[in-house]
Structure formats: structure tokens, C-alpha cells
Amino acid sequence: MNNGDMSILALIAEASLLVQLVMLILVLASVASWAVMFRKHQMLKEAEEAAGRFEEAFWAGGDLSELYREVTERPDYLEGMEAIFEAGFAEFAAGRGRPGQTPSNAVESARRSMRIVHMREIDRLEDNLAFLATVGSTSPYIGLFGTVWGIMNSFRALGQVQQATLSMVAPGIAEALIATAMGLFAAIPAVIGYNRYANKVERLEVRFDTFVEEFCSILERNAHAE
């Protein structure tokens, strides 16, 4: 460990209890936000790949009943576009068997079912994004609070001496500024992560919306053809 690291660690160790508490909060917030970002990266990557695979199978021109059977027979819990498709096809098939049910009503019932699953999937994908936004927006202010408190303590200590020198005030100001730096260190990655993953969720939402409308059009054509 070099001398710069030693001096920074020494400043943190000698900081007031409140400033140390602020630094601890910022470190925990940073660690938690990175954990959320790694988890969100994996989740959205899997969701995008799954949507691509399903779209390829859906638009391959095969029998929808056979595709529905393949999807529902999988042991895995259905998520994303597969879950939307399963809900819509199941509701459409059940709707056609109801007495007095028109094709338009069956399609509309399928659309409602898909919208419900669609909202559930988007809510799942957006999970913890609000935490990243909170860390990104509040961490600089938490760090600034620690800075203000540390500088205030330094100037209060200066009032108790006859002659103030730079060497007397510099350590207190330095330890206070570390809190600001830690606040930015926690906030910047969280803001970048939030913007990146919110954009990915938004693009998936558009893909889901498009699929719902296109699938409803196919169901309506099939219903009227029958």
C-alpha cells in the first residue's frame, strides 16, 4: 500500500464519527448498487436472448398449437414473451369454446390476458431500478452533508486557537472532501446503470407491445377464417 493510500485511510480513521457514518452509508450504497447492476445485467441479457429465440420460433411459420404445446411442456417457469404468448393462446382457446362467444370477443379476451402478463413481466424487469435511481440522486447530497459537517468541525476547532495555519485546517477539510468523493463514486455508476438498464427495459417493453398486437391480428384472422 502506497503512502497516498495510507494518508487517505488515516484521514478516514481520524474523521469524526458522523463523517465516518456517512462514508459507511455511501460504501454500502455503492456495493448494493453494483450488486443490483450485475444482477440486472444478467436478467436483461437472458430476457433479450429468450425473446429473440421465441420470436424466431414464432415467425418460423409453424403451427401455433404445436408451439403452445412446446412452451407449456417445458419444466421452466415461463417468463417474458413466452409467458405472454401462453396466456394469450390459452385464453383465446378457452374463449372460442364458450357459448355465444364471437371471434372478436375471444381475441379481445386474449389481448386482456396478455396485457396482464405483459405488465407483470415489465414490473419484474424493472425491479430494483428505483434503488439505482435513489442511490444516484441521493449519494452526492449524503456525501455533501458529510463534507459540510467535517468542514464545520474544522472551523469550529480553529476558533479555539490564537493563530490558525493551513496545516491545522487542511486535514479536517481533506477528510471532509473524501465524503464528497465517495458520494460521487457511489452516484455516478448508479446513474449510468439506471439509464442503461431502464433503456433496455423500455426496448423490451416495445417488443412485447409489438408482439401482443401482431399476435392479436393473427388470432383475429384465424378466428374469422374458421
Automatic annotation (TrEMBL):
Membrane topology: Multi-pass membrane protein
Coiled-coil regions listed: none
Listed Pfam families: MotA_ExbB
Keywords: Cell cycle, Cell division, Cell inner membrane, Cell membrane, Membrane, Transmembrane, Transmembrane helix
Transmembrane feature ranges: 6-36, 129-152, 172-194
Known partners and oligomeric status: The Tol-Pal system is composed of five core proteins: the inner membrane proteins TolA, TolQ and TolR, the periplasmic protein TolB and the outer membrane protein Pal. They form a network linking the inner and outer membranes and the peptidoglycan layer.
Protein family according to the UniProt entry: Belongs to the ExbB/TolQ family.
UniProt name for this protein: Tol-Pal system protein TolQ
Organism: Natronospira proteinivora
Top-level taxonomy: Bacteria, Pseudomonadati, Pseudomonadota, Gammaproteobacteria, Natronospirales
